[in-house]
Amino acid sequence: MTIVVPNGPSGPTDKLARSLGQKLALRLGQSVIIDNRGGAGGTIGAESVARARNDGYTFLLATTGTQAIAPALYDKLRYDTEKDFEPVAFLTSTANVVVVRSSLGIKDVHELVALAKREPDRLSYGSSGNGSSNHLAAEMFKSITGTEIKHVPYKAISPLRMDLWEGRIDLVFASEVTALNDFIQPGKGRALMVSGDTRSALFPNAPSAKEAGMKSYDLSAWWGLMAPAGTPAPIVERMNKELVAILASPEMKKEMVADGQATKAMTPRQFAAFLAQERAKYVPIVKATNAKIN
């Protein structure tokens, strides 16, 4: 069995795939190969699975980018996220964290919004590029709050981090583990808010968006397992059952907490409904940014 990771051999997607692959191999009694196929925002790896044989031996470790953002972002996407895949199982998700440089002197998200409204375009945020998930998270924040904050795209996280800490940009929007590992440092970066309804165990002092009065700010990064369209239902159901059991295990729960991730058991049909909602969510956000990739 092969699980295609649409990113290089590092980062949260690869780490999750390898952890699940090891546990699946034990439960299924067969080897599980992790095949990293990065490039083009994950679409190269996703396309390879869309074109693979639907015999139950090839799966995609799908991401928000490959299944929800890509259809709105790419003019010429070489796969159909709805028609070319069978949803197998929702895996994990992580909230988005609003991080400001400490020297800005902002204590909470309401002070941030007030400053951004008082002085439009004074503030700037960094992202990993046009159409990236953190770019769209920032644009959603701007839309909800009615603020103008300048976008500064980067090609790598190291210069983004240094520019935040040294005051050349003012804030970033990052996943929980990225925020913790790369941006939050005493006197350097401060977490103001996490997206969604609940607080993060990694940032217990940062309110949730719901607590902060921004309930609609529910953008998160998520991962799921997909199979090529037409994969037999018994295979899909068996894989769903095994993955739900793995994700409920104490060992996996410990790993998820450490990585700022959470899970929710879904049937393949429930996962399909979730995917439809996510695709619809990103269309207006991408349209508002005018971000398009040919």
Automatic annotation (TrEMBL):
InterPro entries in the record: BUG, Bug_dom1
Domain of life, source organism: Bacteria
Pfam families assigned to the protein according to its UniProt record, in alphabetical order: TctC (PF03401)
Family to which the UniProt record says this protein belongs: Belongs to the UPF0065 (bug) family.
Keywords on record: Plasmid
Record has Acyltransferase as a keyword: no
Protein name (Swiss-Prot/TrEMBL): Tripartite tricarboxylate transporter substrate-binding protein
